[in-house]
């Protein structure tokens, strides 16, 4: 099945509403924040949502729902160790939700990506 979106820009544009594009703008800020600490990070659209890759490995995923953004580390074992830092966010085993207007937490994003890289032996 072909991807519905080819680029991050296309994905984010699809999130616009008559009131603006808060979700798309936040998704872009999350990616930019990750790239501040990981300049080799690129975005690939996979499963029709943005996935951040470093050296060809998936390290972080983002999906927009109507009222929140779902964020995922690609290390399925990492979120429990971040539970204290994710207090106040709805979490499940592999993802956590943030508000659509979330101000990206650079330290948290950096540490989640670092945890995934450590799992891959790439840290």
Kindly, what is the distance between the CA atoms of the first and last residues, rounded to a whole number of angstroms?
A: 33 Å
Number of helical segments with 4 or more residues: 3
The major pleated sheet works out as:
5 strands, antiparallel
CATH topology: the name is Aspartate Aminotransferase, domain 1
Helical residue percent band:
25-40%
- Number of strand elements: 5
Residue windows where pLDDT falls under 50 for at least 5 positions? none
Domain count: the total is 1
Oligomer: single chain
Return Rg in Å. 14 Å
- How do the strands of the widest beta sheet line up side by side? 1-2-3-4-5
What do you see in this structure?
It is a single chain. The chain is α+β, with helices and mostly antiparallel strands and 123 residues long. The protein has one domain (8-120): Alpha-Beta Complex (Aspartate Aminotransferase, domain 1). The protein is 30% helix and 24% strand. The chain contains three helices and five strands, in the order H-H-E-E-E-E-E-H. The protein has helices at residues 8-13, 22-37, 106-120; strands at 42-46, 49-54, 57-64, 68-73, 95-99. Strands 1-2-3-4-5 form a five-stranded antiparallel sheet. Helix 2 (22-37) crosses helix 3 (106-120). The relative contact order is 0.17.
